[in-house]
Amino acid sequence: MSIYSNAVRRPLTTILIFIALVTMGLYSLTRLSIDLFPEMEFPFLTVFTSYPGASAADIETNVTNTLENSLGTISNLKSINSTSSDNSSIMFLEFEWGTNTDEAANEVRDNLDFIERFLPEDCEDPTLLKFNSSMMPILFYAITAEESYAGLEKILDEKIVNPLNRIEGVGSVGLAGAPGREIYINVDPIKMEAYNLSVEQIGNVLRAENMNMPAGYLEMGSLDYPLRVQGEFASSDRIKEIVVGSFNGNNIYLKDIAEVIDSQRESKADERINGELGVR
């Protein structure tokens, strides 16, 4: 006797079964968690390595190939895709679905710690990056400024980024296209040679002056007060007054041999909002 004939001959039982299924379905529906942007872990890891001053061919030979040979033995590794360009190497590691990315990341990190000694001396340590859906931005704001564009990064950092980062549930807040501050020192080679100075001497003096450092303790009774020398440059005008050497018993100031320009850092990409410079 088929299931269909039983369902027809016993309608009450069939109705009760359907009611039970519907009831269980509605109960399960109320217990399901709902998330507008559910967190998903993709089985991908990225290894980024910086080698300043090296060409793409040198990067591939001395960095990328070395890392590929070491990481090729990782468990559950499906494929490795690498890109070698000037100054950097990027490797994308794809694992089988279902792989625990935390365990895979630990295994990759162990291999990187071992292989670092075989990389070129000037090569920076490889950086391991792990991605999931929670790292993807869900909200963008476009901001423009006219008079205060040069200081826009500092204003946004103090007024928007830091307050938003303190809100519970906010993962991170970042800026893109912000104009970074940079101070240029253009040394006059003729004046520098006339005062018998070199670029290395000037750089060493600036490096030593632009530093905050501890200076011991001051004992007063039973209390010890830490002392600290604050030498970090607070403004670009102070840099001009730095003594970089002496000539015939007279001090030579940086402003005597160089021009100090407080400007914006050169950027390779601009953020444009309705044709105007801005920040995203």
Overall description:
The protein has 280 residues and is α+β, with helices and mostly antiparallel strands. It folds into 3 domains: 41-135, Alpha-Beta Plaits (2-Layer Sandwich); 143-180 and 268-279, no CATH class; 181-264, Multidrug efflux transporter AcrB TolC docking domain, DN and DC subdomains (2-Layer Sandwich). It has helices spanning 3-9, 11-31, 56-71, 101-115, 152-165, 189-194, 199-209, 236-240, 254-257, and strands spanning 41-50, 77-85, 88-95, 127-132, 143-144, 181-187, 212-220, 223-230, 243-247, 250-253, 258-264, 272-273, 276-279. The longest helix has 21 residues, at 11-31.
Distance between the termini: 70 Å
Beta-strand content bin: 25-35%
State the total count of DSSP E strands.
Answer: 13
What is the typical, i.e. mean, pLDDT?
Answer: 80
Estimated helix fraction: 25-40%
Uncertain runs with pLDDT below 50, 5 residues or more? none
Q: Assembly type of the shown chains?
A: single chain
Q: Could you tell me the radius of gyration in angstroms?
A: 31 Å
Number of helices: 9
CATH architecture of the largest domain: 2-Layer Sandwich
The largest sheet, given as strand count, sense and whether it forms a barrel, is: 4 strands, antiparallel
CATH T-level fold name of the largest domain: Alpha-Beta Plaits
Strands in their spatial order, largest beta sheet:
2-3-1-4
Q: Count structural domains.
A: 3
Q: What is the CATH superfamily classification of the largest domain?
A: Multidrug efflux transporter AcrB pore domain
> What is the SS-derived class?
alpha+beta
